[in-house]
Every structure is written in structure tokens, then in C-alpha cells.
Amino acid sequence: MQSDGDIYVSLNAGLPNFFSYRFDGDSDTGVGYVLGIAYSRPEFGTRLALSYTSPIDLTFSGQEGRVLGAAGATPALSDTRFGVEMPATLSLDFQQGIATNTALFGRIQQSRMGI
Q: Is residue 84 predicted with pLDDT exceeding 60?
């Protein structure tokens, strides 16, 4: 998984540039894995699959700054670094044939830290 992002927030309390925050982030790539098992009965159009996706750790580095003051003020950006953990997921997928050209299907998924 690769992720990156930039954030800019500006609060205007009746004054231009009353408060602003900016983060310019670099991208990071994290590696995870997926494990699964499936059960199928083709004659009934039935399929059941359970899969687990591991958590993925990302560490973002970039520059951030805050400004309190007059319009046009440029924030002084400082280096920053923080980590994010994309949560593990557990998914149950199902499919059931209900007519010749019709199937019912769905997914139940749980995502949370520390599964």
C-alpha cells in the first residue's frame, strides 16, 4: 500500500488568515499480507470465503506549520514525522444462487486495530 497527502486548514473568524495549518507530506509504502480460505458448492451456487488482511504500518515525514496572524503571512514549516497503522481486517464473503440467472451475495467485514 502506498499513501501520501497534503493538508491545508484555514479558519476565518471574520479575519483573513486568522488561523491556518499546513502539512506537506511525503509518500510511504507499507507491505502486508492476505490469508484466506474458501468453501464452494457449484451445484447449489454456494460460495463462502473467509479472509484476513494484516495491518500495514506507514511512517509519514514532511513539513508542517501553523500561522496565527495577518493575511498573507507565510507559515514557518518545520520537519515532522509520525506513524499510522492501517487496521487489520477480517472478511466473510458469501454467495448463494437463488435462480438460474440470479445470485444473492454479500460481505461482512470487521476492521480494527490489533485483531
A: yes
